[in-house]
Amino acid sequence: MPKLYIKTYGCQMNERDSEQVARMFVQKGYTMTDREDEADVILFNSCSIREQAEQKALGKMGLLAKQQRHRPHVVYGMMGCMAQSKKEELFKELPRLDLVVGTQKYHRVFEHVDGILRARQERRMDELQTAFSGTHVCDVAEEADSQNRIRDHLNPGARSTAYVSIMQGCEMKCAYCIVPYTRGAERSRPIRDVVDEVKMLADSGVKEVTLLGQIVNRYGRQMETADGKGGFVQLLEAVHEVEGIRRIRFVSPHPIGFRQDLVQAFTYLPKLCSHIHFPMQSGSDRILKEMNRHYTVQQYLELIDYARKTVPGITFSSDIIVGFPGETEEDFVKTLELVRKVGYMQLFTFIYSKRTGTKAAELPDPTPRKEKTDRMTRLLKVQDEIAMALVKAQVGQTVKVLVEGFGRNEGTLSGRLDNNLTVEFTADASLMGSYANVHLTGARATVLLGELA
Ligand code: SAH
Ligand code: SF4
Ligand code: F3S
After folding, report:
1. Core-most of 143, 177, 254, 436, by most CB within 10 Å?
2. Whose CA is nearest to atom 1 of ligand 3?
């Protein structure tokens, strides 16, 4: 049996897409391997969000190809966002690369790999040429409805949680962001299709679904009802009906279009986890404007306030970019203030990375790198203190944990709370995939520790 190795960079969307590709290959008789040196097909699912993510994938694939010169039969493919943005250029950067597949073509990866293998074989027979050096295939064109072709999951019965893609693409054009150019125009899947997929997952034992989209609250914008209920809330209601599903999460919403109907949904949909990943990006109105984010700090805070009043105990996480072109010390201090004011459970922080083709790439960026990394260190320190305090405040409670895997220490299991915090506790592996009542006894950094209640 031929073996497939996939390495995934980037966001949950990419994890989901890699899984689709893996499933296709397994159906055709491949086995998966986590060892590059025994793989016959090596696929990277790449991310373009920051320079570093691209460099990592390029570096690793280059190195692999070099190390494996003695295995000329291996097929190398690059999929995903960098494939979409760099296209044929990748063949120049990676001479051993055979295949480039864009973000709307995941469902065609198997046929392309198969085609390459066949072409090589034929050529070998024709020319008795053994050291054939690859057939270049680049498929990055748009394809309508590409998402609906990739809905089945790989052996979901083995897990209690799963990702479900509800929409693709983004048209917001935040000044720093490459995604609108890698994932294409915004497209929502019909409610019926999403619900069917969730039902199938529930039937195979999945208990928690995370709905994925670049901006989930723009889902089905045309579907708004007369009383102002948006398409996304209608979708949440429909998914909520699915028997067997006990928890629903979603990433990422945008502060623009996060309306009262969505906050209200938390009050009458008990499966909806009371945690919102709510990307802020900066605490300075001037920078937010430059970023093309269309909201002010005040508006953002009002939304947080409204959500906290409406849904007691709700927690927030966020994305912050440090060192956007022209960010001054004063702007940065405003970000620190905002982070303190909100009290995020988790923060995903990034140093600005220039992406060619975006609007921000043309802005002057005089701040030295050293200053940006210093700002980042200060931000992380503030956030660490906040998160530790929030985590400690949970100790002493008895909570419901959905067990998702093994903990770091022998004999422990790990899972998440409604509010997205991770808990590790001593228990038998038979609890995997089910709910456990756990008494929280302490914390290791931001991971809660506990005992079965
Ligand atoms: N669609 C989501 C974000 C997806 S990208 C949203 O709008 O919230 C995830 C995060 O990466 C972004 O929220 C942003 O904080 C960060 N990011 C995007 N482009 C970046 C860049 N050029 N440099 C640094 N961070 C970036
Ligand atoms: Fe990028 Fe902005 Fe779209 Fe998010 S909303 S994917 S940050 S352009
Ligand atoms: Fe990266 Fe593409 Fe996701 S650029 S963050 S993999 S949408």
Report:
1. 177
2. 47
